[in-house]
Specification:
By secondary structure, the chain is an alpha/beta fold. The chain is about 30% helix and about 15% strand. The protein is built from eleven helices and ten strands. The strands form two sheets. It has an eight-stranded mixed beta sheet, sandwiched between helices.
Length: about 350
């Protein structure tokens, strides 16, 4: 009877998570964009110097890197011109080639909502126009960085909205800029300044995020699809010689990171504003990364029940003592998205983690 009682309580909390006081009340169901990018069929049918091209769906990023290393500049540029969407999203391909390929792919869409991504000073590492659009943008010099961080955001982010002007420190691109500047290698500072060496930050919206706070945000379907893409993305960073990244995982993005953790080579994993990571403890994430967690005093995520029942809810609170993560100070954080605001304890701590200085 006691077990039945606990089950009924958990079921009640799960119902509350979807439709009760936690605010999970509205949101459109999203179809996860997965698989290789558009143009893959034409890519598979092509060759380079008589050699078959690596399959975007099955080739490991290290195989892709080795393939491009064996091509001369003319062959690389021909692939770039013929297959920009594939080259721009191919993990393991040379970074400058991907930046140029994505500039071409963005322009080719002819869509005004993406036009700013084609600016000459932007380094778009991935761009997929399917659905609401996915994008990854590099801030800094990824090829020479001593430290790399990746921002993994939560709901309501896509290729058109992740860098809106009204979110200078709260949207994914704004978070990336704020973190890079806080490390001493952002705007107005010379590359490599600061004791932690040069830091590059990637704003990664490489999965279909939930819209609003409906059922998509309460279950793990989109997170599972995103976790596979995040794991492949980090393997791509490794294939081009980037250092092991720090993953900064916000809100639903921390669910993605929790599911991807054991499949990445992340040095640190930072969950903030998290509803749970689909694990009971940090050890259960089965990662060699150091696990950190932060939650501000006015973050509404604290009202979300930390349960998982019938696929609904994301489990234990990463900031709880029982979870076992290292705590990040966040006493001065305002709301759910204020963790990267200049002057906050959390941003200072994040910068130390990003530079490998936190203990």
């Amino acid at each position: 009877m006691r077990r039945f009682g606990r089950t009924m309580v958990t079921a009640g909390l799960a119902v509350a998570l979807v439709g009760g006081t936690a605010g999970w009340a509205s949101g459109d169901s999203q179809a996860a964009v997965t698989g290789p990018p558009p143009g893959t069929s034409a890519w598979r049918a092509d060759t380079a110097s008589g050699r078959p091209l690596p399959d975007p769906a099955t080739a490991a990023p290290r195989e892709v890197a080795a393939f491009f290393a064996g091509l001369d500049d003319a062959a690389r540029k021909e692939l770039l011109r013929s297959h920009p969407l594939v080259v721009g999203n191919l993990e393991g391909a040379p970074l400058p080639l991907r930046y140029e390929a994505n500039r071409i792919a963005v322009v080719a869409t002819g869509e005004a909502r993406y036009a700013s991504l084609a600016a000459p000073d932007r380094q778009i590492l991935a761009f997929d126009p399917r659905g609401r659009g996915q994008v990854a943008e590099v801030f800094g010099e990824l090829e020479r960085a001593e430290h790399v961080s990746v921002i993994v955001p939560g709901s309501d982010n896509d290729a058109a909205t992740y860098d809106v002007p009204r979110k200078p420190h709260t949207g994914p691109a704004g978070m990336a800029r704020a973190l890079r500047e806080a490390t001493g290698t952002g705007a107005g500072t010379r590359t490599g300044a600061g004791t932690g060496g040069s830091t590059a930050v990637v704003a990664w919206i490489g999965y279909t995020t939930p819209v609003g706070v409906g059922l998509d945000a309460a279950d793990g379907r989109l997170a599972r699809a995103g976790a596979a893409r995040l794991a492949r993305f980090t393997a791509g960073l490794d294939a081009v010689g980037a250092p092991d990244p720090v993953l900064f995982c916000h809100s639903y993005g921390s669910v993605v990171c929790g599911l991807a953790a054991r499949h990445t080579d992340a040095a640190d994993l930072v969950a903030f504003g998290s509803p749970g990571m689909r694990a009971d403890t940090a050890a259960a994430l089965r990662t060699g990364a150091r696990v950190w967690a932060a939650r501000g005093p006015s973050d509404w995520i604290a009202d979300v029940p930390n349960v998982e029942f019938a696929g609904i809810g994301h489990g234990a609170d990463p900031t709880s003592a029982a979870f076992g993560a290292r705590r990040v100070p966040a006493a001065d954080v305002q709301g759910h998205t204020g963790y990267f605001m200049p002057g906050t304890q959390s941003l200072a701590a994040f910068a130390a983690i990003a530079k490998g200085e936190a203990r």
